[in-house]
Amino acid sequence: MQSVENIFDRAKHIQIKSFLNRIGVITDGHNFCCCPIHKEKTPSFKIYPETNSFHCFGCNAGGDIINLAELILNCNPLEASRYILNESDSTGTPTPELDRKPAERTITEASDRSLNYQVYQTIFEATVLTRKGKQYLQSRKLDEDVITYQLAFTKSLDSVESEDSEYCDTAEKLFSYLVKEHTPEILQNAGVLSRSGKLIFPEECILFFHFNPDAQRIEYISTRNLGNCQYKSTKLAGIPFHYWETWNDTGETPEIFLFEGIFDAVSFYQIFSKPDLSEHKLISTCGKPNRDLLTELKRKYPRSEINLCFDNDNSGTETVHKLRKDFPELNYFDVAGIDQNAKDWNECL
Q: What is residue 65's predicted lDDT score, i.e. its pLDDT?
């Protein structure tokens, strides 16, 4: 007779992705999918193949494959393990069945995705860069050209009438404006409102608009939070961070430069000759990139050189080392070559 420990051990070695596929839940290329535990329309559930674990950024559930099966089946760890292994117990009792058919979780373009883009465009057109926000960017040594054109702030309070302005320079104004233009349901689906009906953006923040040059539209928004915010940055509710790229669209892209953060990308743009870089694509991966992103870039730009421009620290160099094992043709553009003491490209300014 098998020991309970043996059943647990064997169950933990089953890959979460395979288990999800078996119950009809399909992840996308970035290992995200709609959560199989709670109901949602935008994917906030992520699996981590390296550790065979998961975390949902929507309901905050997380753990290993047994924890996942427990939550889906509403059963104990032993029943969950048997279900994962598709085995009966010693008495011949079959593994538990799902108390509901898994929802169809395949990641496709949602029918209301276009409404999301309309919401993001509304925010882009309605907001301004406040003086405090501009002062912060200037404190990072970014110049006017970078602030206006690369960070996609087309207007600021310095260039519009601040008195009785139709532009939204506070979170309160933006919230009031949005609920006049869009229903709360649409705003929640777009990830702009929290479940409690509050605007997700902090009172003091700078908005980064993630523009897709191919589709000529804004597809994501993230922030740099100022003041005493709990987090350095905020993303749309229930939607994972998405990479940000410079807005230029030249068609053929000779070179691609990958950075960890948005400030690193625009700092690099400022440090080097701007006319030369205008033909190239600068991308912030908003964290460490995965192999899927590199694969997609190589497919989309087969004749482009790809340069890794990550932070000058242990994490950055380790990421470069791992990626170049799979993609030995990648170039490494080391920030230490410009300034040995700089941790990242913004510090070079």
A: 92
Q: What is the pTM of this model?
A: 0.65
Tokens found for residue 271: 């440090």
Count, residues in the chain: 349
Distance CA 114, CA 128 (A): 23
Angle at 242 between CA 339 and CA 223, to 5 degrees: 75
Please state the CATH superfamily assignment of the domain spanning residues 4-85 in this structure: Zinc finger, CHC2-typedomain (3.90.580.10)
Q: Give residue-wise pLDDT tens across range 224-242.
A: 998 777 778 888 887 777 8
Predicted confidence at residue 136, as pLDDT, reads 92
Closest by Cα among 97, 166, 94 to 127: 166
Residues of the chain with pLDDT under 70: 1-4, 87-112, 152-154, 158-165, 248-252, 273-278
Separation between Cα atoms, residue 194 and residue 177, nearest integer Å: 16
Structure tokens at 330: 């990648």
Which CATH code of 2.130.10.10, 1.10.10.10, 3.40.1360.10, 1.10.3720.10 fits the domain covering 243-349? 3.40.1360.10
Convert the pLDDT of each residue in 126-167 to its tens digit: 888 888 888 999 999 998 888 877 776 667 776 665 555 678
Domain 4-85 and domain 243-349, same fold? Reply is no
Q: Where are the domains of the chain?
A: 4-85, 112-211, 243-349
Q: By three-state DSSP, how is residue 281 classified?
A: strand
DSSP 172: H
State the DSSP string of 69-119: HHHHHT--HHHHHHHHHT---TT-PPPPPPSSPPP-------TTHHHHHHH
> Cα–Cα distance between 223 and 107 in angstroms, integer?
25
Residue 237 CB: number of other CB atoms within 10 A?
A: 22
| Paired tokens of 316 | 């950055």
Phi and psi angles of residue 63, each rounded to the nearest 5 degrees, phi first = 145, -155
